[in-house]
């Protein structure tokens, strides 16, 4: 039995000299980063930015409420955008792969247009252009609708990539047992495609969260807008945006952990209960990816 793993099949592992070079560069870059952090800390300390008195106002109740209101606004925009653009993106991806030509053309045109338009430009359209023709919506929708329109197109391409990554045999097998094309897409192809692109979808969810920072354009009270107002009122710019950065990091970390949990949950082998790990015997019985690749090489390279 071959014991080479899939990594060795895909690329050559570095030798002793290469490993020493990588280790030396890692140490050098780490020391450089530590030096930059130390110099930054020293400069901020010398200028008094790290003094307790400059951070104390943000622990008061009024400041905490200000940040919480901004956080609530950010989560509202992100949740509403995700609730609409993820299903819409999946429908657009299915439509772009549809056999009906007009439907395919319409979905393709939408995806190509809105995938190329900057979100900020679309926000300006809702802010300045549409009210001039009598279409004026609340500031919440002036921010949320452009985010939905842009990200639905991006999500459609992500889902379409997952659909195209599946083997055609999946669809052919579903059609062979009597399923219609729509039923095969809904019950067989789409669920597997979404499993394949879960990391990319979560990355796009993080992008939705970041797009909500455009709320300052329409004066929507999201987290960045609240922090900017607080910084202008207190003259504590660094402190305000450091706190906001920590909040965004915490949210994105939570989303990443959620994505990891979902990926493990959805890709769990059939018959394995959640929370249980495969034992040594199960691991020994697992087919090695490199063996599958190497076993296919002779037949792929054989003369025809």
Short description:
The protein is an all-alpha fold and about 300 residues long. The chain has 15 helices and no strands.
Describe it for me?
Helices cover 78% and strands 0% of the residues. With 304 residues, it is mainly alpha-helical. It has a domain at 74-220: Orthogonal Bundle (MetI-like fold), CATH 1.10.3720.10. Helix 4 packs across helix 7 (139-165). The model is unreliable at 1-10 and 271-304 (pLDDT under 50).
Q: Report the average pLDDT across residues.
A: 80
* Estimated radius of gyration: 26 Å
CATH architecture of the domain at 74-220: Orthogonal Bundle
- Structure annotation, total helices: 15
The total strand number stands at: 0
CATH C-level class of the domain at 74-220:
Mainly Alpha
Query: Biggest β-sheet, characterized?
Result: none
**Secondary-structure element order, as H and E?**
HHHHHHHHHHHHHHH
Ends apart, CA distance between termini: 27 Å
In the CATH hierarchy, the third-tier topology of the domain at 74-220 is known as MetI-like fold
Question: What proportion of the residues form beta strands (DSSP E)?
Answer: under 5%
- Give start-end ranges of low-pLDDT stretches: 1-10, 271-304
Instruction: Find the structural class using helix and strand composition.
Output: mainly alpha
CATH homology-level superfamily of the domain at 74-220: MetI-like
Produce the secondary structure layout.
Elements: H1 6-10, H2 16-46, H3 52-55, H4 61-96, H5 101-116, H6 119-132, H7 139-165, H8 168-176, H9 181-196, H10 198-211, H11 215-218, H12 223-234, H13 237-266, H14 280-285, H15 289-301
């Amino acid at each position: 039995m071959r014991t080479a793993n899939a990594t060795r099949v895909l690329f050559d592992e570095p030798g002793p000299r290469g490993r020493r070079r990588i280790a030396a560069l890692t140490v050098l870059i780490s020391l450089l980063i530590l030096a930059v952090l130390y110099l930054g800390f020293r400069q901020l300390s010398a200028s008094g930015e790290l003094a307790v008195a400059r951070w104390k106002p943000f622990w008061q109740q009024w400041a905490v409420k200000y940040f919480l209101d901004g956080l609530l606004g950010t989560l509202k925009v992100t949740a509403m955008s995700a609730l609409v653009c993820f299903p819409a993106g999946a429908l657009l991806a299915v439509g772009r792969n549809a056999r009906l030509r007009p439907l395919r053309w319409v979905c393709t045109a939408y995806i190509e247009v809105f995938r190329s338009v900057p979100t900020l430009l679309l926000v300006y359209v809702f802010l300045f252009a549409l009210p001039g023709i009598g279409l004026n919506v609340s500031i919440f929708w002036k921010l949320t609708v452009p985010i939905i329109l842009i990200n639905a197109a991006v999500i459609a391409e992500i889902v379409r990539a997952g659909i195209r990554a599946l083997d055609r045999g999946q669809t052919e097998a579903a059609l062979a047992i009597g399923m219609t094309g729509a039923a095969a897409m809904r019950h067989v192809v789409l669920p597997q495609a979404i499993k394949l692109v879960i990391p990319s979808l979560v990355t796009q969810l993080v992008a939705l969260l970041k797009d909500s920072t455009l709320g300052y354009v329409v004066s929507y009270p999201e987290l960045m807008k609240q922090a900017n107002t607080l910084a202008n009122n207190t003259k504590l710019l660094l402190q305000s945006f450091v706190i906001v950065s920590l909040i965004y990091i915490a949210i994105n970390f939570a989303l990443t952990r959620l994505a990891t949990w979902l990926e493990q949950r959805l890709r769990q082998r059939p018959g394995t209960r959640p929370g249980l790990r495969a034992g040594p015997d199960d691991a020994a019985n697992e087919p090695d990816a490199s063996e599958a690749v190497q076993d296919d090489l002779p037949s792929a390279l054989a003369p025809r």
